[in-house]
Amino acid sequence: MSGGVLTRRAFLKGGLWLGASALAADGLFLWRSRIVVERVEVTIEDLAPQLEGLRICLLTDTHHGPMVGIGMLDRAVAAANGLGADVAALTGDFVSRSPEYIAPAAASLARLRAPLGVFAVLGNHDHWVDAGGVREGLAGAGIRVLENSHALVERAGAPLCVAGVEDLYEGRPDAAAALDGVESTTPRILLSHNPDYAEALGEEPRVDLVLSGHTHGGQVRLPFGFAPVTYSRYGQKYRGGLVRTGRTQVYVSRGLGVVMAPVRINCPPELTLIELRGA
Q: What pTM was estimated for this model as a whole?
């Protein structure tokens, strides 16, 4: 700068500094106040007309603990109830660090409303904290925990299978066991905390859609969406969004909470509303 005139270079440097500061402030302080609702249509072959437009709310990786207060979880539950979903799917990592967070998290999640049911699987952090305590808390909240098992729900007489598997690292996920006895014509939704499990799915048993979390979208995303850390063996593939793997589709949510550090940059907390459509 000379003689009070702002040079182009100084202007650009100032803009970059302000932009970086804004991103840092958002990532460090403001992310808790923004829960983004992602609305996604998923096509399933031979979907019964009665299931057309069925809505599934996906809430995952709440990580209630030192870095995610109960107020944020309460807001997410209220927002979820406002979406009018038919089914609520919770894909694990409910708490972090200590069992003391289980009861308040369960009490908050007990307020979830979905006419066809609220279903859950556990994540690796739930095992690290107290898997038995998390199971008990969820059951007490009226939430059905699926561990290599399934539930059948119906709308206007048409069945939909909601199945769940154990955590990839802390359990023994078994899709065949989870889907045992399900009619071949019944659409199948599989809850798996870790999306990497989708790589183990073959032609049979057929899975129409996998719902997952775990990767947090990377928590920090550079320009063009690149996430330096994804907690996945498959790099960027499962950082977030809808992915096709073999015969199935996988939707990976960025989740609500955080791990390692209370930071989210270019990667806001997510609540997902999935609408099923026939092919």
A: 0.89
